């Protein structure tokens, strides 16, 4: 369907008076019309084909994301000729350079020149020739304000499809480009590669080569693989590589990877548990021979318990958390100033694990000790330990509520919010989300006591915070705004209804 013949007719069919929904759905059930972005790209490809008198050219490729790069290549060739790069350099070398630019990017001209120096066909070229290639790419894709040497092919799907096609033919290019890349370039390399591999047209064929890339350079790519796995919806090849890497690296490098783990990640949780278990085993062996290994053992056991808990393996999590608390108690006896904070944190986690196994009395005991320890610490150094106190009060509120002590649970939650409010006033970027979660807990406690109007006030403030945060990270916080609104609607019914409405109530 070229632009000159099919698109106007399609538009008339969709907008004709009386056109029904079935007709509109049927009219759009054709290749290239699956979504808004795809439709726009298809229209552009049809326009370019029509301009070249090539209305049937679209049948020669596997989709619009292959058709448009064919037109891009003609643009590249004309610009390369104008820059004097052809025929001195081959079209293959110039394509390698463009793929390198899209795959790794560069923050400065020096980094761009270093990257182009690793491109086959450019490595042995004089520096002025590589600079000419860099300027050619910048002319093709001018950078936004900020000094970067070039931008990328847009939309991202086109760049990823182009990169995927190229790496399918030459997977060794990524290995060569990765050597000498900066940390941010390595993360971008693995992120773009994994997104490209996820395109259905490749049918998972790129997955093994991406995994092999990470396994071939574990010392350098393991850390970036951890970061990239949180940036793509299809991290499977990266996780496969990380599982292999965890069996190869020495303890010091494993500790670096553990420090790099995000605070929470559903995707990384199985691998994180495996990594922290191996570290715990290494540190246990170290501590048997050397008392200096005990702090590292306690930390790795605590981290192991956290990740196992997130996986729902509560018995294993409790065993790790109990051992962590025992180790921290021993350390705190000899050096309380250094190890009481870690003991309080370990007790807080132990309380969560005990509650997950319905050991509520023991869980309350652990939470109470955690709060008491943090109070002792904040008396001496409030700036350092107020966040820990707020966290442990939140936990204590849950434990008290589980024992039916609702008024005390509300008092703990209210104190937690007061602490978080002060912290968020000084550092909103660090504590606004914690304040919002604390307000949610206060509202829950108030509603449990039938104080619905006060609960509504807390939830209204919570929603305002999540909306503010959603402006910066909509994919993360918009769901929280919706859930908060559902809670608010439920509270409105409770306030207006003379008797309890039927239903389960808020989440």
Structural class: mainly alpha
> What about the largest sheet?
none
Gyration radius (Cα, Å) is 29 Å
Per DSSP, the total helix count is: 24
In sequence order, what are the helices and strands, one letter per element? HHHHHHHHHHHHHHHHHHHHHHHH
Low-confidence stretches: 1-7, 23-37, 57-61, 501-507
- Percentage of helical residues? over 70%
Distance between the termini: 49 Å
Average pLDDT rating: 87
Number of DSSP-assigned strands? 0
DSSP strand content? under 5%
Shape: globular
Characterize the structure shown.
- The model is unreliable at 1-7, 23-37, 57-61 and 501-507 (pLDDT under 50).
- The longest helix is centred in the C-terminal third of the chain and has 23 residues, at 474-496.
- The protein has 24 helices and no strands.
- It has 507 residues and is an all-alpha fold.
- Helices cover 74% and strands 0% of the residues.
- It is globular.
Strand and helix map with partners:
Elements: H1 6-15, H2 21-27, H3 36-51, H4 64-82, H5 91-104, H6 109-116, H7 127-140, H8 156-169, H9 172-178, H10 183-197, H11 207-216, H12 218-229, H13 236-246, H14 251-260, H15 269-289, H16 294-310, H17 314-334, H18 336-356, H19 360-380, H20 382-402, H21 406-426, H22 428-448, H23 452-470, H24 474-496
What's this entry about, in short?
By secondary structure, the chain is mainly α.
């Amino acid at each position: 369907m070229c632009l000159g013949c099919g698109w106007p007719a399609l538009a008339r069919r969709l907008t004709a008076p009386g056109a029904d929904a079935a007709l509109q759905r049927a009219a759009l059930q054709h290749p290239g019309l699956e979504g808004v972005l795809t439709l726009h790209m298809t229209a552009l490809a049809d326009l370019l084909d029509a301009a070249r008198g090539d209305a049937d050219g679209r049948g020669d490729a596997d989709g619009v994301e292959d058709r448009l790069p064919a037109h891009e290549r003609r643009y590249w060739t004309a610009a390369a000729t104008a820059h004097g790069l052809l025929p001195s350099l081959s079209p293959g070398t110039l394509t390698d350079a463009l793929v390198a630019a899209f795959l790794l990017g560069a923050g400065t001209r020096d980094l761009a020149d270093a990257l182009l120096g690793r491109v086959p066909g450019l490595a042995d070229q004089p520096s002025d020739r590589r600079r000419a290639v860099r300027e050619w790419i910048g002319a093709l894709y001018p950078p936004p304000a900020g000094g970067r040497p070039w931008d990328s092919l847009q939309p991202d799907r086109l760049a990823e499809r182009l990169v995927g096609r190229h790496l399918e033919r030459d997977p060794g290019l990524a290995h060569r480009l990765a050597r000498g890349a900066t940390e941010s370039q390595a993360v971008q390399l693995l992120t773009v590669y994994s997104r490209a591999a996820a395109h259905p047209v490749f049918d998972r064929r790129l997955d093994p080569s991406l995994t092999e890339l990470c396994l071939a350079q574990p010392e350098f790519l393991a850390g970036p693989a951890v970061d990239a796995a949180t940036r793509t919806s299809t991290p499977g090849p990266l996780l496969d590589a990380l599982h292999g890497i965890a069996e190869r690296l020495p303890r010091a490098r494993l500790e670096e990877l553990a420090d790099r783990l995000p605070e929470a990640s559903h995707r990384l949780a199985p691998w994180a548990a495996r990594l922290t278990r191996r570290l715990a085993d290494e540190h246990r062996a170290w501590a048997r021979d050397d008392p200096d290994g005990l702090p590292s053992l306690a930390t790795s056991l605590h981290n192991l318990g956290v990740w196992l808990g997130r996986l729902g393996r509560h018995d294993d999590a409790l065993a790790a958390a109990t051992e962590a608390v025992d180790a921290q108690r021993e350390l705190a006896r000899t050096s309380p100033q250094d190890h009481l904070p870690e003991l309080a944190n370990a007790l807080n986690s132990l309380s969560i694990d005990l509650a997950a196994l319905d050991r509520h009395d023991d869980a309350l005991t652990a939470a109470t000790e955690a709060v008491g320890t943090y109070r002792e610490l904040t008396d001496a150094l409030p700036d350092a330990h107020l966040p820990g106190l707020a966290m442990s009060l939140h936990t204590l509120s849950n434990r008290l509520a589980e024992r039916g002590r609702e008024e005390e649970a509300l008092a703990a939650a209210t104190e937690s919010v007061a602490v978080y409010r002060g912290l968020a006033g000084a550092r909103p970027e660090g504590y606004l989300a914690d304040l919002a979660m604390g307000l949610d807990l206060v509202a829950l406690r108030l509603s449990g006591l039938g104080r619905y109007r006060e609960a509504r006030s807390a939830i209204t403030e919570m929603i305002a915070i999540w909306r503010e945060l959603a402006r910066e990270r909509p994919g993360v916080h918009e769901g929280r705004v919706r859930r908060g609104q559902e809670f608010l609607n439920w509270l409105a019914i409770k306030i207006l209804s003379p008797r309890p409405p039927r239903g389960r109530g808020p989440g």
